[in-house]
Design brief:
Helices cover about 55% and strands about 5% of the residues. It is mainly α. Helix 1 runs parallel beside helix 3, helix 11 packs across helix 12 and helix 13 crosses helix 14. The chain has a single domain, classed as 3-Layer(aba) Sandwich (Rossmann fold). The protein is globular.
Length: about 400
């Protein structure tokens, strides 16, 4: 079967007995290699079991969850088919990617967008992750009709993606031609965390925290090869706060990664991420327990902070460039210069000029100020400081 532009297309079979049956049938028809299918099925099994436990999901929320799974499976099948169709994709080399991570709401998104202005740098863009087939080409990378498709699907009023929501746009930078985080690629493995952001899936998150994720990063590398094949640059700039949970697995696949870890006062982080996730989940749940949400965010990201500290203590030879959120906001170009210097990357006048232009054209709070408070989520500063004591002490200079 084929869809628009000759892409392989997988039909959503509404005749299946349940949505769960349909999504499993779709996955098994996606043309994945046996190992890939087995790993994806493991993640999907854990995810669907957890989704069934979310009794507060509205009918619309549950429907959107299965539609999101459908899109991820379809994209995975298309990338796999393109890789078989064009064996040269597997020969593409991914070297020394810049990988941004750290606590969420610590400037990872804006830093990613700034780095992407360097003409020598390639970042995965929102539109190409959503519709990766056929592989993007350099000549049409900024005129591809899939860009407008993404805008219509995501920024039209009432879009199910939630990106058009004015509250969301206050809180998160988004756009078809802006860099997208690695989690959106790893979503195609059905072993990522994008469903957590929308639908909570608590037991799935517990599974994800203990699972091994080297294969997920191998799939991630295949997608980078896919995007780079006809649109090469000198380096990749990547971003995902959730990398801090599994830095060891990341480095098994990208042993030469240049890791940038951003830092912000965790009291601000937990307040801000609770507010963002509340907005993201509001359209999918009949009711939201904001105090439970606050506890969830604190527990999850305290775990991430602890894991990143433990990894760095055990692997002192891994070079990490630490960057302060405050410094990034106040003197962004100086922060960029430090990152480039740390990894001996030349910062050209052209790149710096484009970064300056982007910063001028993308002011903070362009869509309104994001106001948030720990008290809205049943938390206080002391509770956050005590729960994240080790992180606060180790990186106090960056807060």
């Amino acid at each position: 079967m084929s869809g628009v532009g000759g892409q392989d297309h997988l039909d959503w079979n509404e005749s299946q007995a349940t949505p769960e049956d349909a999504v499993f049938a779709m996955l098994r028809a996606a043309g994945l290699d046996p190992m890939d299918l087995a790993m994806a099925e493991e993640g999907l099994t854990a995810l669907l079991a957890s989704l069934a436990e979310e009794t507060s999901l509205s009918p619309a929320g549950r429907s959107n969850a299965f539609n999101q799974l459908r899109k991820r499976i379809e994209a995975a099948g298309q990338v796999a088919a393109d890789r078989r169709r064009h064996p040269a994709i597997a020969d593409v080399k991914i070297t020394r990617p810049l990988v941004i991570t750290g606590l969420p709401r610590s400037g990872t998104t804006i830093l990613h967008s700034i780095l992407a202005q360097d003409p020598d740098t390639r970042s995965p863009l929102s539109w190409e992750i959503a519709r990766p087939s056929p592989p993007p080409e350099a000549a049409t990378h900024h005129t591809d009709p899939r860009i407008e498709d993404w805008v219509r699907a995501n920024l039209s009023p009432g879009s199910s993606s939630g990106r058009a929501d004015p509250e969301f746009r206050k809180k998160h930078l988004t756009g078809a031609q802006l860099p997208e985080e690695c989690g959106q690629i790893i979503g195609a493995t059905l072993r990522g965390t994008e469903m957590w952001a929308r639908y909570r899936v608590a037991s799935y998150v517990a599974w994800w925290l203990e699972a091994e994720h080297t294969w997920d990063y191998q799939v991630h590398r295949r997608w980078l090869q896919h995007f780079q094949w006809r649109n090469p640059r000198t380096r990749w700039a990547l971003k995902w706060p959730n990398h801090i949970f599994h830095l060891g697995d990341l480095l098994k696949v990208y042993p030469d990664a240049c890791i940038v870890q951003l830092h912000r006062d965790p009291r601000e982080v937990i307040s801000s991420i609770s507010s963002l996730i509340r907005t993201i989940r509001s359209s999918g749940f009949s009711t939201l327990d904001t105090e439970a949400l606050g506890r969830e965010m604190l527990d999850l990201w305290a775990t991430g902070a602890t894991r990143s500290i433990e990894f760095r203590l055990k692997h002192p030879g891994v070079k990490v460039a630490d960057v302060s959120y405050r410094r990034l906001l106040e003197t962004p170009i100086e922060a960029i210069q430090d990152i480039y210097a740390a990894f001996e990357i030349p910062l050209t006048n052209l790149a710096e000029g484009r970064m300056q232009t982007f910063l001028k054209d993308t002011p903070q709070n362009a869509h309104g100020e994001h106001r948030h408070s720990l008290g809205d989520y049943g938390l206080c500063e002391q509770a956050v400081s005590e729960r994240m004591h080790d992180y606060c002490d180790r990186f106090a200079a960056y807060h």
